[in-house]
Amino acid sequence: MDLKADIFDALQIPVEKLEICRQHAAIATVPTKWLEKLRSCQCNSDLSVDKEIWKTFNKESMTNYMPDDWINLVISVLNCTELGMDIVKDAEKSEVPHKLFDKSFIGTFSIIAEENKNGLFKDLVRSSEQCYCVEEEKDLDFKSENKTKIEHCCEVISRIHGVRLLDFTKNESNGSKFDNVDSRFANDSHLSMSNDETSHTNLKRAIFAVLKNSKIFLINNDMNFTVKDALMYSPALLPSESIKTLFILYQTNQFFHHFQENCNLDLSLLHWGNVELDTRLWVKVYLTEKVFLKTQDGSKDESFKNKSNSSSQTQNSARKAQDNNVNNDSHSAEMKETVNEHPDQNQLFDLLDKWICGELSNFDYLMFLNKLSGRSGKDPNHHPVLPWVSNFDFDDGESWRDLTKSKYRLNKGDRQLDIQYTMMRDSADEKDTKSRFRAPNLPQVPHHVPEFLSDITYYVYMARRTSKDILCKLVRSYWEPNEYPASIQRMQVWTPDECIPEFYTDPTVFKSIHEDMTDLAVPKWCRDAEEFVKKHRAMLESEQVSLQLHYWIDVTFGYKLSGADAVEAKNVCLPLVDNHTKQTNRGIVQLFNAPHPKRRCRIQAPEPPFKINVVDDESLIDFPPSYDPLKELDELEKLLKFKAKTWKRTDSTNTLSNALESSRNSFASRGQHRTILSDRNVVTLICLMIELYLPQEVRTMNKEVSLDERFKMCIQCYKLHKSRLSSGINFAIQYFLTNFRNSEEETYLQLAKTSNSSHCVTNYASIFKTVSDRGLPPPTPALLLSSYAHILPFPPYFEDLYELMDIILMNTDHYNKPLSDQILSIVTRKLYELFEKLHDARECLLILTPHIQRLLCQPTVPAVKFLLHNFETLSKAMGSKATCNEIFPHILVLYEASINKHTERKEDNLSSEPEVLSESDISKSFPNDETGSDDAQAGTEDIETVSWLSDEVEEINLKTKIRKPENQSSDTESNNDEFDTTILAELYKESFLLQLNTRLGLKVFIENLPRCLADAVVSSEFSISVTAKQSICWLMQRIGPTLTSKYIVRHLFRVLSRCFLFSEGSKPSNSDCHKPVLDCLIHAASLFGPSMLTLQYFAHLIHNISSAAHHPKYAPRHQAAVEASVAAVTHFITFLTDTSLMEQLKRLSKEIICPILDLLARTDVSFYGGAEARKSLCLKVIHMMALLLIRIGREMSRQHLTPLFQTFFSHFSHQQISSSEVSHPGVKSQQLNRSFDSVDSDAVIIHHDIDTRTFKVGNTVLQESSSGMRRQLHKSWFNYSPTPSPNKGIQESRSFDNENAIDNLQEIWATFCPETAYCSYISFTRFLGNIYMEKILGKDYDHIWKLSSQHEKSMNGESGRLMSTSQSYSAQSSYTSDITMVGNKLIVASETPQIETKSNLESDDDIMTTLLTSSGGMNAEGKLEGSARRNLQEFPSSQLTENWLAYWEHEIGLPENDRHIHFNQIELQPFGGHSGAVRCLSCHPSEEWFASGGKDKLVKLWSLWNNNTTTGGKKDKQPSTTNSSFIYKSHKKTINYVGIVESEQYILSCDGSMHVWDPYTGQQVNVYDSTDVKSGFALAATLPAPQRYALAITNEANVRFIDFRRKILAHEFKTVAGNSVGIARAMCTTNDGQWVAIGFSTGVISILDVRKGLLSMRQGHDADISTMASVSEKQFLTASADQTVSLWEVQGKPQPIFIYKTYQEPIHVIQTFNDEIIAGSVANRITVHRLPAESGNSGMNDPKQISEPRAMSKFRSDSFKGVLTSFSVLPMKRQLLVASDNGNIKLMA
């Protein structure tokens, strides 16, 4: 029974759904429902999928278009009777001496000594020449263990794969024969992890195992991407010198060690095509079915079964092609017979010789090269390619194609390719100053050819045989058959790609399966497709093509794919030069590095090659001009050179591996079996190592050959190319080759003798020496892993790293489930221990970072737990920049997800390997919830967050899914929710935010975190909201007023608007979620003074209202902004002082209240929420006006607010009263001081009688209930076109629908209704007086009184009398049920609780006071109070006054894109300073504190928190001096350097000796006192994280790298070569810490590469170098006494990039800020210059503009006394710390 029949019989998968991929394996495409049924031991045979669609699903490129409920599986079939492996028994394991994982040095070498002793003893026994004969090895006696062989095999498979085995072998009487097989694995989970040590993390385990009729069916996921794919198609992913490549080799070694020691598995057939590689560089080895067989020689069956038969077949094939007798129907069979499934180098040479001699057809040879390059007929993206040989105009040889050029070049033309290549090269050379990523419309690298055959072109070729659905998905989104080429001639002209084999073999591709698409037309010289295919094939085999075919091979597979040859041939291919690291299993492959030999063709000589002429009795030989006697020799020489450069032919006789292969059945004992098994596995590891590090050289080698052939080819490849390998890999391979027991030939012969007999052999000795030259035993996988053996160049941390990753992957099931709390604690401890052992963790982090990122993509709560436990450790090891790039984007996602704790995320399929049964629900990770005004771009509006992220990090594409808890009680859910919320609230606590601020730097922190905090303030989770609110208040005090205004206040206003945003059709928001936001805003105002409220808050609210009123379309965000503004103003009024309120009164009434009232009465504005939303806003405005009345009092209200009341009540008279006038929407709204008695001349008058419920337009009277009212009103009103007035403003440009205007008019009538009139009239009349109200309302008074009476009548059933002031009632409205009234107090949206009214009130003022008291705004004594009431001057030390206010106003007024520093000599804060000159300053990256060192031998710490206290009188006020917070007194000399160690957050200070101490506790960590240096260290510096070294320079100009944690000297470099260059004056390190630059007193500059110790020197200046500063990772600045500043590159030309010569004095202090240089001179002058654009910063390249200072300022003598000695820039606050020689320090702006 064949393989497909076996699978169908066992698993009920239809045969047409199967595709054979190996001898014992097939690929099946099944629905996921079938997997579920299989899980319950039921098979499903109903797999109904259209055949044509099914065929496309079998292609790899179509897996993305497969239905979601279908999946590809690999099914391997193992026959239990043929299996030959067994699990090593426990008794035998104890005797194995190869477990060298003892981490102690003594323990490891004790085991090595014991192994050497045993090996030497065995050698001594062998030397006695005694031959031990043993009986033939037999299979295990399963009967003695009460097991059958089938049972044993089932147990082995279950233990190896850690999966339960499903038994489909049924016995009618007893049911399943093996119901109890391996019950340990008989659980419900198909992916249950095995607790047995046999399973391994690096094993690609089966998801199911099925037993049927003594055969085991292993079901596994198909491999997506293998190491072989990476080496062939993505070589940049695994560079040869990368630590990633070495870690892959380490994992493979771990796998070999595990299965050799536990399973006795022979892994000699393993190759990189069996090793899956995920995006995190974790390998999973796929054990093929051959590993479990007794013999593994079946690979030889895969080669040519009979070479003589193959030779005759190829000859017949060539003869048929040349005779134009091509059998097109036998294409597939011909290919299988001619080309091996796994072609190798030997076969290449055989076929090459035959092709050259004409024994092999062109077609067969080209198909062989396609297979060799990995192209397959099953993959449209990687389909075989053949050349177009003609344009089909003629069939007589007059239309041949030029095969020396690619089809793409012929199609596009040389001129177009040259222009394209030049433009891309120039654009690639340009440096993008804003982003490290190029523009999306620019290619990444210059190239000529994108691809030889794209999948789109393939489907166009095959359009006649492909379904419409596939064509619409891949070619065109719509079906248009006429847009596809109609003929083969048109197709050849149209396509820039090469041809496909089907056009040479298969006439059916010309016949269309679509009714509306014609067959592909053939040239006129052919009758039908069959004839065309024959003639086309004959063209390919013709002599004209054969003579040029080698040129096409050079272009498509050969040396013209790379280097200068590719550029000259205009054949630079994008996949070969873009250095892509994306995982792909297809692409262009270069097979040859030398010109391909030419094919020999039959030469027809019409005359003899020479003639003999006799002249003067002398014989002369005359040769024809074309005769070349050396031509054949030249061709032969080229052929030999080609073979020599490509490969050396292998000889498989008498090789070492051949002896191993033949002797594995002759072992006389299990101990010998273990020895030879170890040797075979070690040899396989050697092969894998060479194949991994020399992938291009072994690319054409067949990986399915026997081990002897494979080993021979690898060794030959190594000897030819070992110079390309690193020293560590070279040493390892040389160690193996030089430690054979005997010479190679003697070893081959000795092992060959042992392979002759399978019954009686001499005791087998390892092929390696018993004791190597280094005193080690024969190599085993265990020995290679030992950190003390040092055979392979594995770093010491690999063992801990692998153990950590193994724990994570094993306990998360490869990230299919989250970490448990217990495992999390273990991971945290292991992670801390790993990084503590490393001085520089960058290489380790290259491997570990993807796994850390994946752990942060767990469900929200586990991810937050992991982050809280490990952020400090990770950020400390990674450094600030790497943390921002790699970790912080995931932290932002966690903040977004924590607001809604039910949202859980799962990693993108593009960055993780898919699991079979895992569900993935895709949703967006960063929803855009911006609700502010679209004009909010500067000042106080919305800002873009994560701006730096677009420059450093690619877009993070994460997936979310909603988890629905099942079978949980409500109590459990509430407890879990409470616990989860508590965990998520930890993200917003001050302690974690302080860690983020410290480790990320202030810039990244402040540009991103305030947004998250503001969003959390309005969270529905109480604990998160409260914690975020507290943290915002804490953060405001730490960062000061400027950053608070720029970053926190903006986001608070954005969130405030979002609180009032609701979708169309929903009710207005009535929740109190906006109150915490208002509390935060008030806290900022109380912290920094009322100026923030009046100058920033009101300006923002006015801008929001103005934007909403003037925007052409009134959107929901505009409505939300207006409602938020009303709520904010109402809240802020209660906190303003009387003076401030009176100053802002005109601004409030004119710019806030009046525009809102006009907006409420406009017919061209539609409110989202209808009349209810418009009326709700109106009532809130009434409440705000009432609050304003009580705040300023009756007299001031009458004096200043009369026009406001008139404007408000005029809307009632215009819209609601009969015989009143309503103006056209185009009429401009009335001005504040304008009389409302007249109407614009352009207005159309509409009369509405509320008693008769009629409308009157002119003479037309319409009933309000009439069905035709709307249509007639529309016709009579909106057909009128008045003459436009030039003063109509924005309202004339506003487009509105006439139909919507009718709806808006009804909303206005419903808003300015009797209820609203009653609420406003009663409230204002009782406070201002009836007489006053009657006076200001004039003729409108009767109308307002009538409306109020009507509403009271409807409520109480009484007429003509208003309610008494002592009565309280609830005002029910037909438009809203959320608006109530108590007395004359308006209660909107349940914002204010119901109160009890007083029955006896003395006056209207008392009534108003009582009503406002209910809202928490005032108390009964008329004073403001409430739960949120704060004194806006309760923090006098931080109030914005005097200089601080001037600085704050200047900073918030700058545009957002302003990147310059503005030094205005504003003195903000003086510090006590030192008793002597201040020598150095160092500011912490958080800009919260700084350290200073001086001549008084002290290091002082100072706080930078805002302090605005003053001393002196009113006329001579001076800022009070701030005292130091801590003083370090352990120094004995003058301090010459103070710096902050970024990784440890320690302070490093130097006075000749180096002191490291903790600034937070004041405790000394370490002191490094150099006793061997006479005068101590001249200079010191710190390296950026994650490096943990301190640099010190001696007077001998040596740089010492000091490990300050262990107080030892790590290493030392000389910085001078040759003669003395003077004393070291200055030193700086580049931003990445890779380079150190030292300046000397003679002007010489030394540049040291920290990684390699390489030194370069250059003459920088003519005088003493005074100071240096870093600019970027590649550039630095030097300043000299010659009054110049030079910009340098660490690599490149020795000349400076630019020299600044405009300084008037020598520069002794210099720093950079963004794209500017800030320099300080001895004359107290601060000069600012631009940096040139080549430095990676924005700016002009004009030398004049660069050399001229952008700003220059000299300190005034009254503000700065003494001489400037040092300064430090605070980049985010744009402030300057300056220090002088008199010990004073000042903070200036």
Description of the molecule:
- β41 and β42 form a beta hairpin.
- The strands form 15 sheets. The chain has a six-stranded mixed beta sheet, with helices on both faces.
- Helix content is 39%, strand content 13%.
- It is an alpha+beta fold and 1789 residues long.
- The N and C termini lie far apart (88 Å).
- 43% of the residues are buried.
- It has 54 helices and 49 strands.
Mean pLDDT: 74
General shape: globular
What is the gyration radius calculated from CA atoms?
A: 43 Å
- Helix fraction, binned, reads 25-40%
The fraction of residues in strands falls at 5-15%
Spatial order of the strands in the main sheet? 1-2-3-8-7-4
Low-pLDDT regions? 44-50, 52-64, 88-100, 130-146, 171-196, 297-340, 431-443, 649-668, 748-761, 902-974, 1064-1068, 1216-1248, ...
Number of helices: 54
Q: What is the tally of beta strands?
A: 49
Short description:
By secondary structure, the protein is an alpha+beta fold. The strands form 15 sheets. Strands 1-2-3-8-7-4 form a 6-stranded mixed beta sheet, with helices on both faces.
Provide the descriptors you would attach to this structure in a database record.
alpha+beta, single chain, 1789 residues, 54 helices, 39% helix, four-stranded antiparallel sheet, six-stranded mixed sheet
